[in-house]
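Ticket reopened. Same input as before:
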Amino acid sequence: MDLDKRILNGDKRACARLITMVENNEKEGIDIVKKIYKHSGNAHVIGITGPPGGGKSTLTDKLAKELRKRGKKVGIIAVDPTSPFSGGSILGDRIRMQDLATDPGVFIRSMGTRGNLGGLSKSTQSAIKILDVYGADYIFVETVGVGQSEVDIVKTVDTVVMIMVPGLGDDIQAIKAGVMEIGDVFAVNKSDLDGADKTALELEMMLDMGFKEDKKPKVLKVSSSKNEGVSTLLDEVISHMDYMIDTDKLQKRREENAKVEILNLVEEEIMQMVLGKTKTGQLLDEVSKKTALRKTNPYDGKDIIVKSIKE
Amino acid sequence: MDLDKRILNGDKRACARLITMVENNEKEGIDIVKKIYKHSGNAHVIGITGPPGGGKSTLTDKLAKELRKRGKKVGIIAVDPTSPFSGGSILGDRIRMQDLATDPGVFIRSMGTRGNLGGLSKSTQSAIKILDVYGADYIFVETVGVGQSEVDIVKTVDTVVMIMVPGLGDDIQAIKAGVMEIGDVFAVNKSDLDGADKTALELEMMLDMGFKEDKKPKVLKVSSSKNEGVSTLLDEVISHMDYMIDTDKLQKRREENAKVEILNLVEEEIMQMVLGKTKTGQLLDEVSKKTALRKTNPYDGKDIIVKSIKE
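Engineering reply: fixed in the latest deploy. New output:
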């Protein structure tokens, strides 16, 4: 059977195969994604993000298990943009709880930069759509919430769960502030630790200052290792989706997400044009050399490259 | 006197003024940067990066003070790309040691996304060149080394000092692996903590696996708070520059840096074209809407936008 039909029939191996094709930037794979795209849009896509050491993986696993109890199909995409060569993603897959990985109603995939010729953002976006067509009711996209590329990835979901933990240093707090605006639901994990109440209170206070235009995000305490508060957190995540549907905000949000996705593809194509063995690529080498020698400057160099792209 | 002449004369206030103009994306400011660009290239530009909580600011301050003792002029640019609205940068400036800030031979500037209309990367690059022309012998660019945008910024320097600290969690270790390849000198900070020797040893082992083509980076133990090992670290940083000059690698590296800088400017211009109130901007809105409704897909949408950019 064709790959697209197999995915529509809920074939996990076909999903894995197509994601790999997109990662390898194979035209055939991308053509299949284009073909099945119209069948996507049914899953609730949930971003899980937070500082390093926040317990994202464990919490995602617990949420997935809770959804399985409720009879739902689940996809998990663990994104690790910080590992260009560490092989961390592969390791991550192995560490993940075996019971989830062998559950026929759960599809787990780790994605890193390594071997990802198609670009991490493109592969992640396509993987979401593939799991959507595969029939996942809920898809988790899990990533460290620290840099712009991570924020870009987690932005293109329906609901962002921002994980916080008590007692991290000042630098972490700064990171928290930087990405706080993208959170729809806040989970203070490791709620058994000292300082959890204080962290939750601080969060409430920051949110009272009004980062969000409309609905003030809820702050919930959870302990993923002890499996406390997970079901309540899940209810709140689902409630955020209901809210968006009821208020007609979902379409607007998905338009914004599509915009980010298209822009990433545009950027990728232009970068290939500029960095490849093309006329523009040669020009870039020349102006970079002249700039380094101070015979020109980056701004005039930029003008030359933009002109060449347009030709 | 004109701003460019004042900067060439070592006027700190003129530097601050021009950096602000670039941050505000004022054409006049960028024209001045273009004009003075040919006078840059004399400073040794040093990137200071590492995980959150690694003690980057303190170490940078100590290195700057050591250089002042040696009679050198110093520029410090503290980049905080994770703070789009927290005002962390302003706070950071105030927290910085007052004795450095009031030293006429030291220029300190914090840069964040907030109010940075010119784009953080562009502003940072221009600030480096401005401080270079101002007469700084050494310029530190300090940033959290966790995401792609941070790595992009710290990449465009002559020498990257990667700070490590003992006893961070697994996620941090993954981040470390992700950015390790860009380090020219490694500093294990907080060397008085348990585990510092182990961290240094692990680093040595990873570096033995050969991330670098040529010179294996040195691993040095420092304690920035106790001011131990700072002078030796500085000597090693200077020795890295000597090595690049002696082996003719500096020009090649600066060409690569110029390439990244030009590409960032190209990207910015194209994004302005696509996201502005332009024909392409309108097209993007349309295809994003259709994509969200699954009437088209992001790949066909991308083709339409790229065609429009070229027109």
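The two ends of chain A are 43 Å apart (CA to CA). Residues 83-94 of chain A have pLDDT under 50 and may be disordered. Please confirm and we'll close it.
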